[in-house]
Amino acid sequence: MRLQHKVGVITGGASGIGRGIARAFATEGADVVVADIEAERAEQVAAELRGMGVKSFGVRCDVTERSSVEALAGRSWNELGRVDILCNNAGVGFMSPIAEVPNADAEWTFAVNVFGVLNGCAVFVPRFRKSGGGHILNTGSEHSLGIPFPGLGIYTATKHAVLAISDVLRREVQVDGIGVSILCPGPVKTDVWNAARNRQDRFGGPLRAPEHMAAVLDHGLDPDEVGRIVVDGILRKDFYILTHPEVRAVAEERGRDVMAAFDALGEGKKRARG
User: What gap in Å lies between CA 274 and CA 268, rounded to an integer?
Assistant: First the structure.
């Protein structure tokens, strides 16, 4: 097994993509710490993984709080003796036009999707340096690559930020033997649509999304398939880990737009000189 005797820590591991990654790690023989804001569900997934023959336990972790992430790291090293892979996977989303986004919703989305990643990196990178290396997977989105879908402006902004953080981080930690990847999945069958059920009180408290929102992701990719893609990408030490080949057209379109702007800049300078 390619990850046998390794230890992975996965935030947002109690459902969706996080659970899919956890199951893929366990299939490969890795021990797994399942971290999630929903402690009971995290332990349920951990029990499932123990049934697959690996060590696993669930931990309640609120990634928006640095102290909670510190506690996660401490328990992981104390109980399993090492951590080899951190998956900063916890994420939330909601839909609202940019001009109508309530501040509390925007702050909540940035707190989980961006500061959650920052907290994970800030806590685990020093430990990885001390232990001689490791790997960090940050979960972005197809929106990290340039899908400007109306109604998802704040979510898209956070996922662009995750790409920026990851791209800089990989250059900062390469000398330490720490690898960095960003997962940019397209639609996956998860319950991220209902993430606000766990929204913290300081951001307005829990809010249940309309049930019809579930249909948006009903036909998404199986999270277990995403988990297998993640394992292969980490083992190859890929920076970008992608799941939906059709997103390539969107990335190419953005690239063409950028190149066209550079071409226009060059033509403008020629006219100015002429």
Answer: 10
